[in-house]
Amino acid sequence: MEKIDILSLTLEELEAELVRMGEQKFRAAQIYKWLHEKKIQDFSKMTNISAQIKSKIEDKFWINSIKIQKRLVSDIDNTVKYLYRLSDGEMVETVLMEYKHGNSICISSQVGCKMQCEFCASTKAGYVRNLLPSEMLLQIYESERDSGRKINHVVLMGIGEPLDNFDNVVKFLRLAEEKPDLSLRHISLSTCGLVERIYQLAELKLGITLSVSLHAPTDEVRSRIMPINRRYNIAELMKACKYYFETTGRRISYEFALIDGVNDDKETADALIALLKGQNCHVNLIPVNAIKDGVFSRSKSVESFKNMLCSGGINATVRRTLGADINAACGQLRRDEQY
Ligand code: SAH
Predict the structure, then answer these.
(1) Which pLDDT value is given to residue 327?
(2) Chosen domain end from 18, 33, 62
(3) How far is the CA of 95 from the centre of ligand 1 (A)?
(4) Which atom of ligand 1 is nearest to the CA of 191?
(5) To test ligand 1's pocket by mutation, which of 213, 215, 297, 298 has the most ligand atoms within 8 angstroms of CB?
(6) Does the annotation count 196 as an active-site position?
(7) Where residue 16 sits, what CATH number does that domain have?
(8) How far is CA 203 from the centre of its chain?
(9) Same-domain pairing of 80 and 42
(10) Is the same domain home to 88 and 27?
């Protein structure tokens, strides 16, 4: 019988497993504490559990772990980029950032990505597999342990498309919610626009912020740079975003990576204003990171684009560049290491 990944179980699930094994329910809380507070990596360390129960637990469960393969620390602003090696040898990236309001972490949700966005390094190295809930959680635990910093904001914006790993991501959110320094209100999830999953996520009313990678206001340009748009066009995406806002009361944050000569002119700004007019939302402008073998370069008119949006009544800000000296576009570290 295959062993169960115990770090991917919520407290309720662990209780159910223990009861099924003929153990008392309260044991689950004890074990959960060892795993998620003391963060033990070996069942033998659980000193308040009898040897007999420990051996039963060891037969049934395993404790997942991840290792730092590479760590880059910015001299400018203390941003740390980790390349983590998972238990099967696959690798993902995690970025830890310091803000005035606390520490924020950007975690990966898949090894690689299927979505094929033209400007993104994560997808170039191909898709391998979904991350387990434990592997998303361990990016937080290991980064906290290594840096000595407490993390109070999480963004699911690293490698992968979180809504393409829906069940594991939702399970991870339930686990993260139980972490003392975190709350779902301080978690953001970024998607390229898997419309059916946006509806499904809205129904769960988790209270997280939904970031939608828009990057173009017309189907013509968006389909060219983001193949997902050929499956779900902008009109369908906007309908889902409005539904998300109406159902959860959380305003959408639109990501817009400005690419020189592609989506940074006045015509694009006007089309974006017309598209988002009247929506309670926010636009996050990102100067695109040039990637290896990529054809796109950073826009030279980021500030003027922002000003055009603001004059048109759209709430827009430019994302602060962190870790400029260790700048590797997301997905680039993994790609460099493996290919
Ligand atoms: N798959 C999800 C989350 C991962 S990508 C999504 O598409 O939203 C996180 C964000 O970084 C997305 O907005 C994505 O479009 C953007 N991004 C990817 N490559 C980039 C690059 N080279 N420069 C700037 N932003 C990029």
Answers:
(1) 65
(2) 62
(3) 14
(4) 8
(5) 213
(6) no
(7) 1.10.150.530
(8) 20
(9) no
(10) no
Cβ–ligand 1 distance for 329 under 6 Å, the answer: yes
The number of distinct structural domains making up the chain is 2
Per-residue pLDDT tens digits for 70-106: 999 999 888 999 999 999 999 999 999 998 889 999 9
**Mean of all residue pLDDT scores within the chain:** 94
Query: What's the pLDDT tens digit per position in 270-322?
Result: 999 999 999 999 999 999 988 877 789 999 999 999 999 999 999 999 988 77
- Residue bearing the CA closest to ligand 1, atom 9: 157
Task: Out of 17, 93, 142, 144, pick the active-site residue.
Answer: 93
Question: Which range of residues forms the domain containing residue 31?
Answer: 4-62
- pLDDT for the residue numbered 330: 63
Q: Indicate whether residue 107 lines ligand 1 (CB < 6 A).
A: no
| pLDDT one-digit tens code per residue, 144-169 | 999 999 999 999 999 999 999 999 99
**Does the structure show a pLDDT above 70 at 338?**
no
Would you say the CB of residue 164 lies under 6 angstroms from ligand 1? no
Active-site annotation holder among 120, 192, 281, 330: 330
**Ligand 1 pocket check for 253: Cβ under 6 Å:** no
Q: pTM of the full predicted structure?
A: 0.95
Q: Mark whether 93 is an active-site residue.
A: yes
